[in-house]
């Protein structure tokens, strides 16, 4: 698993390392050297401007400047604030720097060819203003490569929020583990390429910190991913049911059904209103179709325990009938994926849904931002919950179900606090019907017995990889057909990657 740390968790990692006997200045020296090395790897000649701030991030900048000078580079050290007020390790790093220290002013960037941004670290929790903001804006306006120390100045390391203004980095060098703000938007878009430097913090500190936020990669869920067995057959791989809308709204269910089938479910059935039976039957080959006109028919279908996973919501319409179908699904023993209209139908009635979600079977809710806001409006507008991660965690805890909050930085959160953040979704994944395929893929993995948090996380990653493999020009129908290539690579690496 690849852990992500909040600002507080990273501070604790530093504290535990120092308490175990590693001097803080040693950590700073290694951090600054890593930054200098990153600048040198750019292979660019010319002057380097190191813009340093008054904290430990600035101390890293002093170390980086010293190593760059030792490597023969011309360096201007631009300091924001009063050098005399530096404390602790940052003050000692300043003492070791023998070069000239200049006042950080926008005009001082003239003639520089590379900038090292060492103004603020991941712990920034207030909007930047005054001279600091002027320097950030001047760095961006300069238009030269920027190497950020730990996190681009102005980006909050725990929430990914831009605190008024932020440096647009070409590359970011962070330490020990990436921070949550490196993955959450909009912070991610300011980081450029992110590299993690080993500065001597031992991995064992994670045993004390116990982070619960992870990068969504196969290392997180590969151990529970279902693989076909030599002695298996279609009935051992589960039977997913996808509920269809009316005759003019069958496409979403068909996309979801195809996603479930390609995800590995042994059988997939579309539960279709009778008016749409002919359309659904004519448009599918390996996917079966059964009549189900309302909540009663759906409940009867799910009374057969072989139907062990249900996808409900894509294209079925908003209103009382959808609420009734949703409650019928949640009263069944089948695992459930609630998407789109199934979620919107409970806007303003979340208590009713929350009561039905108190069940043993796995349940995954898959809202995009609009649906999240309609269903979890009080959580969405809560100013104390400052990030998408915090809001998704609160929603999962509130509903007692796994919540997958879609977007470029899709967050999957479980009621027990575990969360995964995706980083592999290409821009062309934003296309009509893509979410329907994702819901179906989750249903297909649930049908095979994968736990809810792992199934939602895996489907999210597979969804992004399928889009990446297909490339530009992607439409939703392409996603299931790109999955086999992704699976071949996944199964070739037993422990993920």
* Number of self-contained structural domains: 2
Report Rg.
26 Å
Overall shape: elongated
Kindly state the number of beta strands. 17
Q: Give, in spatial order, the strands making up the sheet with the most strands.
A: 8-17-16-15-14-13-12-9-10-11
CATH superfamily of the largest domain: Ribokinase
What is the CATH topology of the largest domain? UDP-N-acetylmuramoyl-L-alanine:D-glutamate ligase
> Sheet with the most strands?
10 strands, mixed
Distance from first to last alpha carbon:
10 Å
CATH class of the largest domain: Alpha Beta
Q: For the residues shown, what is the average pLDDT?
A: 96
Q: How many helices?
A: 20
Helix fraction by DSSP (H/I, runs of at least 4):
40-55%
Which CATH architecture of the largest domain would you pick? 3-Layer(aba) Sandwich
Strand content: 5-15%
Oligomer: single chain
What characteristics describe this protein?
497 residues; alpha/beta; Rossmann fold; UDP-N-acetylmuramoyl-L-alanine:D-glutamate ligase; 10-stranded mixed beta sheet; 7-stranded parallel beta sheet; 20 helices; 17 strands; 15% strand
């Amino acid at each position: 698993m690849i852990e992500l740390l909040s600002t507080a968790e990273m501070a604790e990692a530093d504290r535990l390392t120092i308490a175990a006997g590693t001097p803080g200045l040693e950590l700073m020296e290694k951090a600054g050297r890593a930054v200098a090395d990153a600048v040198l790897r750019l292979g660019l000649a010319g002057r380097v401007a190191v813009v340093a701030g008054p904290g430990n991030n600035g101390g890293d900048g002093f170390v980086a400047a010293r190593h760059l000078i030792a490597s023969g580079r011309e360096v201007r050290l631009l300091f924001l604030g009063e050098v005399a007020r530096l404390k602790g390790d940052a003050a000692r790093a300043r003492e070791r720097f023998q070069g000239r220290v200049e006042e950080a002013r926008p005009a001082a960037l003239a003639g520089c060819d590379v900038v090292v941004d060492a103004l603020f670290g991941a712990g920034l929790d207030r909007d930047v203003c005054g001279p600091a903001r002027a320097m950030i804006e001047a760095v961006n306006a300069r238009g030269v490569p920027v190497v950020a120390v730990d996190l681009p100045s102005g980006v909050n390391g725990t929430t990914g929020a831009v605190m008024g203004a932020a440096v647009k980095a070409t590359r970011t060098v962070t330490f020990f583990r990436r921070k949550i703000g490196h993955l959450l938007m909009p912070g991610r878009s300011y980081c450029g390429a992110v590299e993690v430097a080993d500065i001597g913090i031992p991995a064992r500190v994670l045993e004390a910190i116990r982070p619960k936020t992870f990068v969504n990669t196969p290392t997180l869920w590969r151990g529970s991913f279902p693989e076909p067995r030599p002695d298996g057959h279609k009935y051992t791989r589960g039977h997913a049911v996808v509920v269809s809308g009316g005759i003019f709204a069958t496409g979403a269910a068909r996309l979801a059904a195809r996603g479930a089938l390609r995800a590995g479910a042994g059988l997939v059935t579309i539960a279709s209103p009778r008016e749409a039976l002919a359309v659904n039957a004519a448009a599918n080959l390996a996917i079966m179709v059964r009549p189900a006109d309302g909540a009663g028919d759906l409940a009867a279908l799910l009374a057969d325990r072989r139907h062990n996973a249900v996808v409900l919501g894509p294209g079925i319409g908003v209103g009382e009938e959808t609420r009734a179908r949703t409650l019928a699904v949640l009263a069944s023993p089948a695992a459930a994926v609630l998407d789109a209209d199934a979620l919107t139908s409970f806007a303003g009635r979340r208590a009713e849904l929350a009561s039905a979600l108190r069940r043993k079977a796995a349940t995954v809710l898959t809202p995009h931002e609009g649906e999240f806001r309609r269903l979890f409006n009080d959580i969405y507008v809560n100013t104390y919950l400052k990030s998408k991660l915090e809001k998704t965690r609160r929603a999962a805890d509130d509903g007692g179900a796994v919540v997958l909050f879609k977007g470029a930085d899709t967050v999957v959160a479980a009621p027990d606090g575990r969360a995964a953040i995706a980083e592999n979704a290409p821009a062309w994944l934003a296309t009509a019907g893509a979410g329907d395929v994702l819901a179906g893929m989750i249903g297909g993995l649930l049908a095979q017995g994968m736990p809810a948090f792992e199934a939602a996380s895996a489907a999210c990653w597979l969804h992004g990889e399928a889009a990446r493999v297909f490339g530009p020009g992607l439409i939703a129908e392409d996603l299931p057909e790109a999955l086999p290539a992704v699976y071949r690579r996944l199964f070739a690496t037993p422990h993920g990657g």
